[in-house]
Amino acid sequence: MKRPNVLNLTCPAIPVVRIGFVGLGNRGILALERYMHLEGIEVKALCDLRKENIERAERILQESGRPKAENYSEEGMWRRMCKCKEIDLVYICTDWLTHTEIAVYALQQGRHVALEVPAAMSVADCWRLVDTAEETRRHCMMLENCCYDAFALTTLNMVQQGVLGEITHAEGAYIHDLRKHYFADEKAGGYHNHWIKLYSQQHTGNPYPTHGLGPVCQWMNIHRGDRMEYLVSMSSRQAGLSAYAGQVFGASSEEAAQNYEMGDVNTTLIHTAKGRTILLQYDVTTPRPYSRHQTVCGTKGFMQKYPVPCLMLDKYGKEPLSGEQFERMMEQYKHPFTAVIGEEARRKNMPNEMNYIMDYRLIHCLRNGLPLDQDVYDAAEWSCITELSERSVRQGSIPVEIPDFTRGDWKKR
C-alpha cells in the first residue's frame, strides 16, 4: 500500500526550536555562529569527534550568553544525541558519506532533520530519506543555501510572475577552484582526513550537483508540476589535481603519482517531463573563476548571474538592460525574503546573507507549523544526480532515468 506523501507537510508548531548540532568543523561552526543571531532557538547538544571543535563551540555559546549544551564527543554518540527527547531538530554538518545514516536515524527517533549538501550519495540512500520521512511524518530539509541567493530569488520571483515567459532551459554549476583544499591540513582549510580527496580517487561524474541544480529546480517547479526525467553525463579526463600536486609537492611525489577517477570537468544534461532542459557543470580542479551559472531562458527573456549579471527582455529590445534600468528591474522584482530577511542579515553584519535567510526560514517555518521551503523530495531529486551522473559517464554517456521520488504525486501539485 502506498504511503501518503509529505508534499506540503505541516507539523505542530514549535515555539522554541531545540537543536542538536552534529559536525562542528568548518561548515558546522559557521552555522552555530549564525544561530546565535536567531530568536526562538535553544542549542541543546553539540556533537563532534574532535574535542577541540566542541570546545570552540562551547566558547561561542558562552560568548553569546547561551546556556551550556550537552556534549557528545565519542565515536557513534550521535545516536545517543538523536534519542534525546529535548531535541526537536538535528542539524547535520558532517562529511558527505555520513549525511544519510545520521538523518535517517534522527527521523526514526522523531526528530526533524536539516542536513548539509548533498543529502545522499546514492539513489538507494535518497530513497531511504524519502521512505523514512514519509513513515515518520517529519521534516527533512537539505541545507541548499544557494536557493536563497538574492539573484536566484529575484529570478524565481520573475519566473513566477511570468516576466520571462515560458521557461525552456536553465543552467547551473559548481565551479570553484578547491585544489589547495584537497591537500591542505584540516586546520589550514583542508577536509577532515582528506575525505574529499579519497572520494575523488574512487568516483567520477558530478558529486556535488545541488548548488547549481537547486535554484533551477525551483524555477522549473520540479515535482510541483514537472519532474526531471533522464540525464546524460560526460566527464573530461583528470589532469588538474595531478598537475597541481606536481607543482606543489614535486613531480615524483606520492601526491602527484596518485590516481584520480574524477574528471576535471563534468557536464550533465537533464531532460524534464515537460520537455525542458538543464545543463549542469562541476569543476573544482582547474584555475577557473568561481561560477554557479544561474542562467535561465524563457520565451520573453533571459537572466544569468555569472560571469556578469545579465537581464534581457523582449519588450526592452535586443540589448541587455544596464545601469539604472537594470537596477530598477532588480529592485522591482526583489524577492520578499531578500527585502526583509536579507536586509536583517545586513543590519546584523552577517557575512553571507543567503545562509542567514536559509536558517531564518527553517526556524520560522518550524515555529509556525508551516511547510518548509525545501522538502525531502528536493533533497532526493537534487542529490541523486551524484550516482546517476557517474553511472552515465562510466557507460559511455548513455541516458539514465531519474527516479520519480514522489511516485507520481508531482502531477497533482
UniProtKB/TrEMBL annotation:
Tell me the cofactors it needs. NAD(+)
User: Cross-referenced Pfam families, in alphabetical order?
Assistant: GFO_IDH_MocA, Glyco_hydro_109_C
In terms of InterPro entries, this protein maps to: Gfo/Idh/MocA-like_OxRdtase_N, Gfo/Idh/MocA_oxidrdct_glycsds, Glyco_hydro_109_C, NAD(P)-bd_dom_sf
What's the superkingdom here? Bacteria
| Keywords carried by this UniProt record | Glycosidase, Hydrolase, NAD
* Any GO MF annotation of the entry: nucleotide binding
| Domain Gfo/Idh/MocA-like oxidoreductase N-terminal, first and last residues per copy | 17-142
Q: Glycosyl hydrolase 109 C-terminal domain: from which residue to which, for each copy? A: 153-307
**What is the recorded function of this protein according to its Swiss-Prot or TrEMBL entry?**
Glycosidase.
Q: What family does the database annotate?
A: Belongs to the Gfo/Idh/MocA family. Glycosyl hydrolase 109 subfamily.
The protein in question is named: Gfo/Idh/MocA family oxidoreductase
In which organism is this protein found?
Phocaeicola dorei
